[in-house]
Amino acid sequence: MTDFLKLVANENMKIYSRSRTWVMLAILVLCNAGMPLLFYIAGGDMDRWTVFSWTESFTFMLTTIFTVVIAAEMIAGEFTWGTIKLLLIRPWSRGKILLSKYLAVLLFSIVGTVITALTAFIFSSMLFESPASGMEGFMGGTAPRGALLNLLTDYVELFVIALIAFMISTVFRSGSLAIGLSLFILFVKNLFGLIFNPERFEWAKYVLFLHTDLSVYIHSPTGPGGVSLWFSVTVLAVYCLIFAAITWTVFAKRDVAA
Amino acid sequence: MIEPLVSLRGVSKVISSRTLVEDLTLDVPAGQVFGFLGPNGAGKTTTIRMMVGLMSITKGDILIGGHSIKTSYEQASSLVGAIVENPEMYKFMSGYKNLIHYARMMPGITPQRIEEVVGLVGLSDRIQDKVKTYSLGMRQRLGVAQALLHRPKLLILDEPTNGLDPQGIRELRDYLRKLSREEGTTVFVSSHLLSEMELMCDTVGIIQQGRLVDVRQLRSPEGERAFEETAFAVDDTAAASKVLASYPLRIQEGLILVGGDRERIAEINTTLVQNGVRVYGIRPVTTSLEDQFLQMTGSERHD
Ligand SMILES: Nc1ncnc2c1ncn2[C@@H]1O[C@H](COP(=O)(O)OP(=O)(O)O)[C@@H](O)[C@H]1O
Ligand SMILES: [Mg+2]
Question: Can you tell me the ipTM of this complex?
Answer without folding.
Answer: 0.89
